[in-house]
Structures are given as structure tokens and as C-alpha cells.
Amino acid sequence: MGSLNIYSGSVLQCSFPRVLSASLCDKLSGERTLEFSVLASRSQPLSVGMTVELDGQYYNIVRISKQITGGFPVTTAQCEHISYILNDAAYNLVTFVFEGTPTAGLTELLSGTPFSVGTVETTERVEAAFTDQSPLSRRNALMRFIDACGCEVEYDGYVIHLRKHRGSTVRKPLMDGENVTNLSVTIDGRENTAAYEISLFKMADLQAGDEVNITYTPMGIQADTRIVSIQYNPFYRYTVRVEVGNYVPNLMASSATQLDRIRQEFRAADGRLESTIESVDGELSQLTQTVSGFDLRIATAEGAVSELSLTVGGFDTRIADAEGAVSVLSQTVSGFDTRIEDAEGSVSALSQSLTSITTRIETAEGNISTVTQTADKINWLIASGTSSSNFTMTDRAISLVADTIDLSGYVTISALETAGKTTINGSNITTGTIHADRIDTSTLKVKTIYATSGKVSLTEYSSNNMYIGGDGTWNYSYTYIFAGSQIKLASWDGVGTHALIFDTSNHCVRPATTVDWDLGNVSYPFGKVWCESVTIRNIGNDGFIGFNGGTFEIVASGSSVNRLGSSTYYWDTGYISKLYLSSSCYLSASGSNLQVNGTTIGGDTNPNMAGKEVRMGGSTAYYITATTGRQLRPSSSSSYYAFYLGTSSYYWHYAYIGSNTVKLGSSTSSKLGFFSATPVTRQTVSSSATVATLISALKKYGLIG
User: Fold this and answer.
1) Is residue 182 scored above 70 in pLDDT?
2) 293: β partners
3) I need a labelling partner for 420 at 20 to 30 A (CA). Which of 61, 228, 278, 433 fits?
4) Given 62, 83, 104, which residue is the final one in a domain?
């Protein structure tokens, strides 16, 4: 059984996993209604027009009433199946005329509505012409069309199915076992039909349309029929009411003779004679006679009525005054029924047979008290408004259903099968707060354990282990522990002196006393420690940090001395991404070689970088490189990122170049200048130029003064 979900449009407003009371009625004719009650404090979201979803079916809230029941404010909502919206004027048709397959006809009928066509279990062509009224209700046309198809309607949310036969075709015995609490039958000899109404203790496997058998020898009943209506509480499927058979009396055609101040009618058909005498003042006398018995009814003009029905098996007597008070007596060979009702509607009824006694008292406000006793069962029922209490006792079990159960005095529950053991189905216990000094149980399964000011989720996996947030087979993604000041972890010593403290107010983790806890130990060290900053406290000049089992000195911070290692204890190997030194700092190898990126710089005044490519200046993309090919050159020949050998202000003092090859200028546009002359591009003279022209060109280069 799912929750009862309330929607406003497509938005979920609230859900009710359980309610005070509920009643769902499903009829073979296509009618489907729902009624439920909740405490008024939980009903604020409810309003007329909202949609209710229950087990895939949808209902519209059409009426809401509020009342006080048993001292509690209660809200009751009455709902109609969503198909009733087809009665709205917006879906009216002018007329409906159709000839074709049932699927096509149903598709046309549902066009423009929220509903769609489901399974149609017939393909025989159908003719329908609904022109007797205009406008024509869409739901009225739908029901008439389904009848014309010879089918029965079945709803599945917003999907409508046409079934040749709703429910099970395998006949089920209704009187099997001890599930039936009440049975009534009405037989109409005029139509040769019988209608049965049965109350069941449990829902069983029943639905509207099921083929059933009713056999009850004490009442001479044996019939094969169908369930035409079923009513039950969908949250608590007890006290189920079903109607089987079909009882629809038809009025017979009659002839009437009107005398002076008296009208008399005679009707005869199918072995029955009926006589009616009525005065103009409204006084009435009726007699119906058949082979099996007769009925007599006398009524005054003021409305007082006396009725007598007599058959071979018994008789019924009914007397009613003009104000509406009624007394009824029904007696057969096997028992009798007595019923008294006043004008306000209060009722007292007594039914006695060879096998049972039933007493029922009902007030005009709807309050009901019923006691039913048989040889093997006693049932008490008290109902008021939407609340009811039901107590059933047999030789094997006691069933008690009530909104509130009050037990006063010392209550003892003893198991009859196993001494000292009482089993309670926890799924059937709903309560508020349980107060107890101690609860002992081998297994306690709850969704949430609530503490005084919060909640925790705990599990004991073994006798020596307590898990918070997981046990290896289940776990939470996150486990939160909140405290305003401190969270303490310690072995139990009564006072928690040796505790590890999570200081939430100062945002730190610390021991309760100085030098009381270690961060890991020799056998179980931490793998990696990631810290924004680390402060090592030197207590008595014996503080140290050990790496890889060593004991390397960390000197305490002083006013002028800060050291990484000492003259006695060196760091063996250091891997540093970036090393920032002050302007007065230097690197010393102290008798060993200093290496940078695998290049030995050396521990003396002559660093050795032979055989290595060295890059200097510029950027990571443009630099001067001394290559392994014995070249000192720029990394790029681009003039945009050109490099200079000296500048106009800072010259190289000496330049010695070997006798192999010297090349100056990369093109004719390159400029040369010697002896402080302004550099110029290559000068062009003809082969027949004069010496004066040649001297002028050389002067521009600065070669001639």
C-alpha cells in the first residue's frame, strides 16, 4: 500500500503514509469514489479541486468537511475519480453519432480530454447515436458507448480500458472459512433476481467484477454471481463490504380505474396479483399476492404506515407514524429481526436467528453501536463520524481496532505458545514518544535514533565494536558530528583525563593534557601529512623530527637563528620545486659537489658544466644557449626577440675569434660599424668607381678616418 499523495496541478503539496480513516468504493458500473480523514493539524494543504493519487489512481477533492471527533479536530475529504471531470461543461458534446470499431469510437470520445485509450477487448463494429439531449455530457456518452460495445470500463490512471469481463472469471467461494461477518439477501420475484450484501473481516483477493459463489445452507442460499461493488479501507483492509448480483426492479405496466373519490388499480403478471386502493385524501391500501406469499400496506393521508409481508417461511411487520418513527418486526422459522427508528433517525435493531444474535443502535447523528454474537464469534463495533472501534473475539484470536486504546491498571501479556515471550509486529505499531528507563533487545532496527538535542545513527556490529555511519556492508556518504565547544575521544577512565579533543571553538585537534597523545607511532605511521603551516614545539631542547627512521635535528626558533638542519646533522637529499634565498645567502657544497638539474657545478671555484647544454637569459622560449655542439648562440634567429653581444653603451673589451670563419650580418640589410661609427647597410659602388668613391664608402663603415 503506497502513500496518499496530494497535488495542486502538477506540484506535490504533501503525502500521507497513513490516515485516520479511509473508504474506497469501486463499482462495476464505472463509479469510483474515495473518502479519507486526517487530523486537522495536518490538513492545511488540502483544498477543493486538488488531485489525490493513490496506488496509481487519481481522484479530485470535491468536498471538505471539518468536525471534532473524540476531542480531536478532524478534516474529511470526499473525492471522485478523475474521470468525473468529463461531466464538466468544457467537455460537453453537441451529439455523438458513430459507426465503426470500438477502438476508433473510444478514441473519438476521448479526443480533447486528458484521457487516452488503453486495451479494447472487442473488435465488433458498433453503432451509436446519442441525439436525445444536447449538450451531451462527455462522461454520459462514454458510459453509453461502453454499454453499446457490450464491455465494462476499467481505469488505469488516465488510461481507459474496455474489458469484456472485469475481474476474475475463475469463480471464488465467498463463504469459505470464517471471513464473512454479515450476509443479507433481497429476492425479487417480479424480476426473478436476487441482490446480496456481504461484509468481510478481511479484504482477501477480491475486486469488482469477480465471479463468486455464495453458499449458506442455514439460509438456503446457493448462487453463482458477480461482485458488482466493493468498499474497503485501502490502508487497513478489514471490514470489507461487497455487493453481488443485480437487483434493479422494473415498474410493470398497469391499468387504473378512477372511481368517485377513490382510485383502484389491479396489476397481474407472471403469477402475481396486485391491488391498490387510494382515496383522494391520500389514504392508501396495497395488497400484493403471489403463490409464495402476500404483502399488505396501509397508509394514512398524514403518512402513518402499517405493512405486513407474509410468506411460508415467515412474516415482516412494519409500522411508521406520520412523524417518521418506524417499528419493524421480521420473523422466520430460523429467527426474527426487530427494528425501531424515531423521527430524528435514531435506530435500534435486534436480529436473532438459530445461529446468531445481532443488536444495532444508531443515532440520528450517525453514531453506531453493534453487537453480533454467533456460536464461534462475538463482534462489537462502535462508530462515530469518521472514527470507529471494532472488537472481535473467537476461540482462536482477538482483534481490536480503534483510534485510541486506553488500558488502565496493571496489564500483563503472556504468550501462550512460548513461555515468557510476546511477539509484536513492529510494522503495525504507530505511536508518539515511548518513555522507558531501559530497553533490552538483541536487534533494534530504526531509521533514526533521536538524542536530546539531535540525532545519531548507530550500529553494534559485534560485541566489542560500535559503528557510526557504517559497518563495512553499509555506509553513509558523510557522517557529521556537531558540538558547540569540544568533541572528546578517550578510553573509558571515568573522567576522560587522557582524551583527544576536537576543539570546535578554536578549530583545532589537541590532547587534553600536554604531550599526552602521539600522531601515529613507530609501527603505524601516517602516510602523508598536508598542512598549511607546521609549528614544532621544543620542550627542554629535546624536540626532534624523524624521517625514514632517522633523528634529524630541528632547532627551535630564536630571535636571530633559523636553521634547516645543523652543522652536525645535515639533510641528506632535498627535493625542492622552488628555493627562495635572501640577498646575503649562498650555497656551499662543503667538500662535495653541488648539482643543479643533474649538472655538477662543483664544490670549488671552478664549477664544471662540461657536456651539458646551458640556457641563460631571455625567457623559457627565447634564450642564449651553450650547446653540446660547442655553440654559443641565441635560441631563435628572429629579429623580434634578438639578442645582443654587448650594447652601444657597454662594449665587450676584448674579442678573440679563431681563424676559421667569421660572418657578420645575415642579409644585405644588416648594418655594420667599426671604431664607434654609426652602423650602415652594405654600400654599393660600380666596378669602374673612382678611388674617392671607394674611400667615401669605407668612411661610412668607420674603417678610414
Assistant:
1) yes
2) 290, 311
3) 433
4) 83
